[in-house]
Amino acid sequence: MALGITRQQLNAWKEAVLRGEIAFLTHYWTDERFPGMRTVTKAGCADLERLSAWCRQHGLNPAYIHRRDRYPHFDLFGPKQKEILLREGLSSHIERFRL
């Protein structure tokens, strides 16, 4: 479940993903498989070749792209999340979610 975002933010992310853009959505999140993680950033793009290339550019394994749904994405959390948000110029995500 995504917490800390609006329906408008979610819909804007979905639209950007479907247009083939690399789009980012950060929200609060819990998953018992990842104790201590409280946020996740979804880096999404419907163009799987483009998303795979983006993953490789950032040292991420494209095998972990979530491809099951209409909005393919790679989940970023932990230190890598903040590192990539900084690289992508998304300090507003870092500030808003106190990363």
Q: What's this, in brief?
A:
37% of the residues lie in helices and 16% in strands.
Tell me about this structure:
This protein has one domain. A three-stranded antiparallel β-sheet has the order 1-2-3. The model has no long low-confidence stretch (mean pLDDT 93). The protein is built from four helices and three strands. The protein has 99 residues and is of the alpha+beta class. It is globular and about 30 Å long. The chain starts with 6 loop residues before the first helix and ends with a helix. It comes from Paenibacillus xanthanilyticus. This is YneQ.
- Average pLDDT: 93
The total beta strand count reads 3
Instruction: Pick out the low-confidence regions.
Output: none
Structural class comes to alpha+beta
Secondary-structure element order, N to C = HEEHEHH
Biggest sheet strand order reads 1-2-3
Helix content: 25-40%
Using the CA coordinates, give the radius of gyration: 13 Å
Features:
99 residues; alpha+beta; three-stranded antiparallel beta sheet; 4 helices; 37% helix
SSE order and pairing:
Layout lengths: L6 H12 L4 E6 L10 E6 L3 H10 L15 E4 L2 H9 L3 H6 L3
Antiparallel strand pairs: 1-2, 2-3
